[in-house]
Structure formats: structure tokens, C-alpha cells
Amino acid sequence: KKKHKIAILSGDGIGPEIMQEAYKIIEILKKKFNLPIETSEYDVGGIAIDKHNNALPENTLNGCKNSDSILFGAVGGDKWNHMPIEKRPEIAGLLNLRKKFNLFANIRPCNLNKKLHYLSPLKSEISKKGFNLICIRELTGGIYFGKSKYDQKKKYAYDTEIYSEYEIQRIAKIAFQIAQKRTKKLVSIDKANVLKSSALWRSVVDKMSKDYSDIQLTHMYIDNATMELIKKPFTFDTVLCSNLFGDILSDECAALSGSIGMLPSASINEYNFGLYEPAGGSAPNITGKNIANPIAQILSLSMLVNYSMNLPNIASLIEESVSETLYNNNLTLDLVQKNKNYISTSEMGNKISEQL
Amino acid sequence: KKKHKIAILSGDGIGPEIMQEAYKIIEILKKKFNLPIETSEYDVGGIAIDKHNNALPENTLNGCKNSDSILFGAVGGDKWNHMPIEKRPEIAGLLNLRKKFNLFANIRPCNLNKKLHYLSPLKSEISKKGFNLICIRELTGGIYFGKSKYDQKKKYAYDTEIYSEYEIQRIAKIAFQIAQKRTKKLVSIDKANVLKSSALWRSVVDKMSKDYSDIQLTHMYIDNATMELIKKPFTFDTVLCSNLFGDILSDECAALSGSIGMLPSASINEYNFGLYEPAGGSAPNITGKNIANPIAQILSLSMLVNYSMNLPNIASLIEESVSETLYNNNLTLDLVQKNKNYISTSEMGNKISEQL
Ligand SMILES: CC(C)[C@H](C(=O)O)[C@@H](O)C(=O)O
Ligand SMILES: CC(C)[C@H](C(=O)O)[C@@H](O)C(=O)O
């Protein structure tokens, strides 16, 4: 069997702690499921700056190139916030990896489990319906990478939101395909009443929808989507966004679910190479206390198994183990109601492992 | 006494109905408070397209030019959605007026009254604290008006998010001044970890803060702000945004308050000329039923009295009349809990008038 090489980039803050729990699952995948996984660790982010003066050292980049996928923890922290932006862990580390590996499709499932509906900041009338949506965000184009300038002398600055038909097609294709495996409801987000890039976005997605006649496609303006998500999150299924709108909306969804510690993400390219990481950040305030929720990291691994190893059934088993563990009322600090008992990061990892 | 001329642009949908109630307040301002107000009506939006084939007819534009302020209702509706974007009521009518009169400062107060906390989609743990914030949105710059192109042949399109130091300074100045009259907490929203226009925005606002040493200024990334607003809306006071981020965040705030029918807005230029309009839209689904909430329109009038007539005390009286009316449990359909009694649009106007 061909080996599947995973580059493990734990990074900063809670990254290493929650990665430890993902390792437990990897061990099970290797030993019980006989998956030919091989892991190697590399420095990224703040720790890489401290050790090698570079958030994405040559050695890390090469390690990733020689791997089949990347399991990423989290990067960043106050310690590195004085640095020029382009050298900081988030930009030099994360944005760079996205661009270098052409990881144009960011996939972020976001669920609110009915049984855990109290986690949501929404009132129970809304939250008790739960929700189950998935954001598909374009990740290597748009205003993040368009032409930009900061003119010190003339005292102006600009950034360019630019999309080609091709870029829109390839991300929309992924969204249509994912919608087909779900409830077949796709909503594409734009600001086509003002932006020309959005008008193009809308027309390309519309044209493509003819090839996906089973999909019920709608369009929504970003400002309206921001409101509808709050009022009726349960009406959304697959949500397609540009890079900037996806940055905003996927975080809004995370806040509405109230469980950012459980949300994984996948950033993939056309060869199914992917970077898999928790949606939350490095959470310096809870670092080293053994209280962080490792579920986002474990579900990121399950997305890796699904998208980069192409083993959806085994991915589902991991997901079910997580759900079962939660149903059995094994909850980390972020998930319990006031004054209720909770389990530690490592206990959560153990429980999910046992379940699996 | 010099006359204050108000151009009344009721527009489409519920616009004319709710404007009717604002007229009642205007009558009181004229008769009881002896304010030298003069009103003239002009067509705008869909109705102007129907009558004059132009969402902003020459006659309306001239009428506005000869006035001291504009009281605006709402524009748009399905009937005109087949038209090319740039001819539609929202763009040819509203965006055009903003640009023509250089209305660079959009001011949108957004409150959740503790007594009406059940209106909010947030759970009562959060909503019972109420909130009281004000969004200051730049309205004539940024990606709404930067260079843009839709290249049919080469199949790409772009829009430019561009800001000059001067544009940032003039909107930030308004935000600092408004914060000074409130709790002195100002948060400026940007995406300075990615966008150069945001880096400029942040540095200009930072520099200005030295002249406002009484103001506690913080910066927040747009994605983080989207989450924090949901989790802790009560921690926000004055919120400063670019055009695009303000479009998104102010609508998010509106959704969180649960009472879009009560939110006014002011769009002003440096000569205190302003366009005052409800934050909600033309609401075709409830048009003509005498159930729309006229409070947003009445509070828009009170913002006009405050900013364009420079009579903050009288503006406060109107606001207090609205609050009193609500406290006395006079509520329109959008404000009542299930199966409770409600009053009509015109009754609400009458109650507020009596109170005043
Ligand atoms: C850190 C930042 C550059 C990044 C982004 O905006 O893409 C983050 O917010 C994310 O969503 O992964
Ligand atoms: C109709 C649209 C162009 C407008 C905007 O985006 O500014 C609206 O959403 C608003 O906020 O007033």
C-alpha cells in the first residue's frame, strides 16, 4: 500500500495540545484500521520565528511539499504582534501556505447539534432547531491577493477585488458537488447590486447551475445573508462565498454555533492536497491548561481522511465517535453549562479514541 | 426666522405609509414648537421610474438641491428587479443621491431596549443586558466607488477598495466626535492584517486619536467584530467602518436588535446637509396593510432635526416620545410577542404625536 504522508504543523498556543489528541486518533487509524499513515513534524508560525527567524522555514515548506497533506494546529500570539504584518505567523505562515499550495477551496462545516443548542448565543426558539451548514470559501483569490498599494507620499492605499471566470468556476464546482451530497440547496453570496466582480461571480454561478439541475441555487447579498443567518440559520445548507465574504460569514456561523472549539476546516487544491486546521485560533488565554477542546483538531483530521485520503467511510466513523462521545455527556469546559462537570483536553481525546 | 426646507421622498413599498406618520410629527414641530419647516414632495425610486422613466428625475434632484435636507422613505421592489443594476431604484435612486450630495457619513444608531429584549434573536442571557451602539459608516468611498471593470472578453472583473488619508480623516473625525458625546469608547473595524487600505485606515485613525485623548480607541478585524457583536453586543458603543464593512456590520447589528422597523439612519455631508431614512427596506410583503412600524421613519426625522436643523433638544423630545409610547405598551405587529394585541401604523403615529 502506498504511504500517506502527513506533515504535522502544530504551531503556537493550544496548537500542540490539541494536536496531541489528534495523534491518538492517528495511532488508531494506523493500528486498528491499518491505514498506511506516516507523520513528520515541522515548525510553523511563532515558534518557527523564534527558532528559525521565519514563520515558514525552508525546511517546513519542503516537508510539506514531500507530504500528501498537512495537519495544522494554530499560529499566532501577542508575542509576534509587533512584527511587520507580512512577517507575522498568520500571514507569513498561513496565507503563504494557502498560496504556495494553491489551496483555493476552503471548506468549513458548521453545525449546531440540537442536544447542545444551549451553546448557541441565539435564543432557544431558533437554536433548538439546530443547524447544519457548510461554507465554501474561495481562498487564493479576490481582494486577498489582487493588486494593492500603500502610497506613503500621496497618502492613499488600495486593494483590488479581482476574479476571473476560471477562479469562480473552480470554486463553484466544488460547492455544487458538495451541495449534491447534502440537501441540494446552494446559496451563493455576493454584492452584485454594487460590485462588478460580484456581477461576474453571479453570472458564472448561474451559468454553471444549468449543469447541476438537481441543485436549488439562490443568490443572496452579503448584507442580507449576515441578517438571515442570525434570524434563520436552519434555512441554510451549502454557502458559496468569495475570499473576503467567506472570511466574514464563516466566522459569523462559528459564533452562531457557539462552539468554535469544535469546528474543523479543510483548504484543498485540485489535486486533493489539503491543509486541515481548526477554525478557532491559537487561544493564548487557555494555552497550557489542558482545558482546550481538541474536537476541532480531531475533526480536521477526519476531513483530511475524507478529502486527501479519499476514505469518506472512515472519516464518518471518526465523526460518529465524536458525536457519540458528546451524546454520552463527555464535555470540555467550553461545552458545559455553568457549574457543571467537565473533562480535560486529554480526557476528551481518550474518550473519542475509546469510542473509535 | 430662516425656513428649513425638507424634500420629502417617500418612494416605494411601505415608504409612503410610514412617511404619513412622520408628517404628523412635522405638523407638531411646526404648530407647537414653531419650527419654520417647509416640505415639498418628490418622486424617487420605482415610482419615479414608472412615472418619469428615471429613478432620480431631474425635478427631484433639483428639488433636493433647493432643500436643506431630505427625508427619505424606501425604494425598490420586485417590479423593478429585471432592470439593469445601474437603473434600479436602489442604485440610480439611493446611491446616486449619496454621491451627488457627497453624503460621506452614514450614522446608524442601533439599540436594544432591555424592556423589549425579547425582540432580539439572541438568548436572554445576552439580550437582557440590552445594547446601545452607533455605527459610523463611510458612504461615498471605498469599493463602492473605486475603479471597476467587467471584461466580457477576457472574462474577469474587478473592483477597487481605495481610500485616501483625507477620506478616512473626515469620517473618523465624525466618529470621534460622536464617541465624545457617548461613552467615549470607539472601535474601528478593518482587515489590516490583509488589506493595505485597512493598514492606512488603521494608521490614520491611530494618529488622529492623539487629538482625542479622552477617547478609548480600539481596533478590531471585521471577521472578529462579526463574532464579538453576536457574543457581546453590549460591549460596543461607537463603531467606525469603511463603506463595505459598514454595510455588513450595521445590518448585522440591526438583525441582533430584532427591530429593523425602529432603526433610523442619517447620511450627511460636511455642510450638515443630510438624507434621513429608515434602515429597513421597502418591505413589499407588508405594504398597504397599515401594519408597518413607522418608528424608523419618525426617528429618521428626529435625526434630521438633530443633525441638519441642529436642534438636539427637540430631537431628544421626539426620541423620548417614542420611548414613552413603547413603554406604555403601544406596539406594532413587529414588536409584539405571539398572540398579543398590536396597534396599526397610523395608531402608532397618533400615540407618538399625542405623547409629543
Ligand atoms: C489570519 C487571517 C489572515 C485569516 C483570513 O482572513 O483568511 C483568518 O481570519 C482565517 O479566516 O483563516
Ligand atoms: C441597496 C444597497 C446599494 C445599499 C448599500 O449597500 O449601501 C444598502 O444595502 C444600504 O445599506 O443602504
TrEMBL record, chains A, B:
Binds 1 Mg(2+) or Mn(2+) ion per subunit. Keywords: Amino-acid biosynthesis, Branched-chain amino acid biosynthesis, Cytoplasm, Leucine biosynthesis, Magnesium, Manganese, Metal-binding, NAD, Oxidoreductase, Plasmid. Mg(2+) binds at residues 223, 247, 251. Its main location: cytoplasm. InterPro entries: IsoCit/isopropylmalate_DH_CS, IsoPropMal-DH-like_dom, Isopropylmalate_DH. One of its GO terms (cellular component) is cytosol. The keyword rRNA processing does not apply. NAD(+) binds at residues 281-293. It is found in: Cytoplasm. It is an enzyme of class 1 (oxidoreductase). Substrate binds at residues 98, 108, 137, 223. The record marks 144, 191 as: Important for catalysis. It catalyses: (2R,3S)-3-isopropylmalate + NAD(+) = 4-methyl-2-oxopentanoate + CO2 + NADH. Its cofactor is Mg(2+); Mn(2+). Pathway: Amino-acid biosynthesis; L-leucine biosynthesis; L-leucine from 3-methyl-2-oxobutanoate: step 3/4. Residues 5-352 form the Isopropylmalate dehydrogenase-like domain. One of its GO terms (molecular function) is magnesium ion binding. Pfam families: Iso_dh (PF00180). GO terms for biological process: L-leucine biosynthetic process. Its EC number is 1.1.1.85. Belongs to the isocitrate and isopropylmalate dehydrogenases family. LeuB type 1 subfamily. Catalyzes the oxidation of 3-carboxy-2-hydroxy-4-methylpentanoate (3-isopropylmalate) to 3-carboxy-4-methyl-2-oxopentanoate. The product decarboxylates to 4-methyl-2 oxopentanoate. Homodimer. This is 3-isopropylmalate dehydrogenase. It comes from Buchnera aphidicola (Thelaxes californica). The gene is leuB.
